[in-house]
Design a protein that fits this description.
single chain, alpha+beta, two-stranded antiparallel ribbon, 4 strands, extended
Length: about 80
Amino acid sequence: MQDTLPLRSAASLEERTHAPALEPVTSRVPARHAHVNGELVLESDAKLHVSDLGLRRAYSVFEFFRVDDGVPVFWRITSSVS
């Protein structure tokens, strides 16, 4: 029975420590937008006053749909109609 673990070669250790750098994920993420008072604005420019009634009373509306390759997909609506 062997009491020690097998040693790894120096080449395999070097291959693991010198992996190519990965591209940051943020470079592929499109700018985020928000719908504020009927306008589509950059998320960083969206502002809401602290006295806003919707904020104070926690009113909210959630509306979303799936997008594939930049094209909205309404498969549930079309399958429900047919």
